[in-house]
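#random but structural
TW: two for the price of one
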Amino acid sequence: MSSSMKRSWPATLAARLTFWYTGLSTLSFLLVFILAYYLVSAVLLQQVDDDLVEDIEEFNSSFRQLGLEGMWTELEDEVAADGATNVFFQLFNVDADSLRRTADTGWEDVPSPPFESWRPGEDSDPILRSLDLREQEYQARTVYGEIDNGTNRYILQIAEPLEERAEVLELVAGIFLFSLPVFLLLSLTAGWHMSKRSLQGVEEVTATAIEISNGAIGRRVTVGDRGAEIDRLAATFNGMLDKIQILIRGMREMTDNIAHDLKSPLARIRGLAETSLTSHPADPAYEALAGSVIEECDRLLHLINTMLDLAETEAGLRPEVKPLNLSALIRDACELYQDLAQASAITLHCRCEGDVEIEGNRQFLQRLVGNLLDNAIKYTPPGGEVTIQQSLDGDDVLIKVMDTGPGIQTAELPRIFERFYRCDQSRSKPGSGLGLSLAFAIARAHLGSISVDSAVGRGSQFTVRLPLQSR
């Protein structure tokens, strides 16, 4: 299949199933119509043939009772009653010579009798033929049959147009043409309904997978009475998620335990370094070594504390919340980071609308705002701008942190809130890759959310949405 055909083919499975259902049902409808059309045509033609053969028998009886002249008078009366264009009679002798014929209006080009394979008096059945005549609007049907009174024997031809049959067939075709669009519409509707109902379980599995990818690792697909295949898929999917969740929980517990166990040794190392620094105050080598050890220990302790805070938050333990002035918290953070921004030749703007009160944990929200501001200043080049803005949106408050930095590549956006993930693959910027993970966890712990809008060359915007009231 070519690429152009693949692009034109319906993208969704529901649309494809609808297409196939509609196509197959329409084809079946067409085949049924063709079969019905030819059955009706054959039945109507058989009725005409039966009437013509019955007429031969009736006129044979008249010939025996009334003689040739009496029978012919009856034939002419019937022509006068039905019209010369609607019925035609012709009488032949046994040698196929035409003896008499009624008015031939519309019947001028009636062919000669096909007597090559049939001879009167040999117990042969009447011969039936269809005629396509120039003067007749519809196809005609004719019969050649023997009449015999015991003394004389003749061949009688009867012909009549198949007008009624043609009108019935036209009516059948008209009904088909009228019902075809209705059938197509019903097929599309039924096919779409059936495909959506059949794929409802798959849609639920997909929705669950999306929720899980967004962080709802405990979400599961409901196993119901939707068919053995869908139920088996849901059960298999849930079982796979259970195993994945156990693995993730085990990995996180191991990481958190390692971080917790490292905290005490690092604190002791830092203490020993401080002791060494005070014991040899005049030795520059000891002073440099101890200072370097203390600095690295502080960095590792900060990393470990962040990991422990992140583990606690991701475990679902909601921090203690109290009423606080979010606007004042944001202004304090701006004031705190103003010196860092000036040192980096960056202009820091703070835009808060009035005083907004929310219920939250001051320490956690300070870290959330601080991490976002720290990241924005860190990745904005000298001469750039960083703006933090607070606004109301219905029952929520929005905190937007915007910068004029290099932006984030589209492929990296889905991963920036992951633990230890850093867009700066060269690790040239200081940091651990946990700041945005912690900000994400803090926002969720406050029943809010955080999102990012960024593109290479136009900076980044992080948006935190928090509820005004505790839910």
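TW: number two ↓
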Amino acid sequence: MAEAARVWRHRTGEIVLDRTRVMGILNVTPDSFSDGGRYFEPDAALRHGLELVEQGADLLDIGGESTRPGSDAVSAEEEWRRIGTVIRDLAVKVDVPLSIDTMKAAVAAKAIDAGASLVNDVSGVRDPAMVRAVAERKAGVVVMHMAGNPKTMQEHPRYADVVREVGAFLIDRIRTLEVAGVRSDAIAVDPGVGFGKTPDHNLTILGHLDRIVDLGHPVVVGVSRKSFLEKFGGGGPGERLSGSLAAATFAVTKGAQVVRVHDVRETVRAVRVTDALRRGEKL
């Protein structure tokens, strides 16, 4: 008998991880590293969210604060002003789960109440108020590792063993969430490629991603358009599609079950091929 597929539970249901799932990125910010604010206006953000779903996104990750290296923080009020309408509108227009990409508990709580099902916290859910917001609202959650904060994270990051240290951090946060009442099967982890890591750290994490998979939770990986890909040729974020696809599909072969991406259509096609090859499917 075939083993049942793992599920990732969230506020409104579950995501069955019987194939690689694609999380589409929707940045409602004026200073995103990847799109320079193309979707900052609510109407443009809504249209792009609908486009990503049409292209095959299994869930949408909506953020109102840039977390690119060197970025400045914004207030919770400003962050919510940017995304509130977008989340409310998408919640009634699409049938895929919405994830709120935020480090602020107040923003997460409002987003869940407005229709989001998951919280993606790049700070690793370190704030006790965020732990409570996730637990009380029975949301799904992505726990990501980041050294420092977006403003300072790329200032000389150092590790003795990056994979071991990232794994230990994730284990600690998983335990904290479970103690607070968050279901174990609602927790996914993200090693935080590009967040307080050098290019070599990023490659090491991807090469040993199976050690993060061994933690026993769905693994989310975000490599889309990230700067470490420049080391292999190409220029700015818009010229990193081929590298993004290569890194994402490699992560899938190492056990990643969700990939967070800007280029949804291309990634959906790439991971379908990767899934078929891994399973030895017949055409």
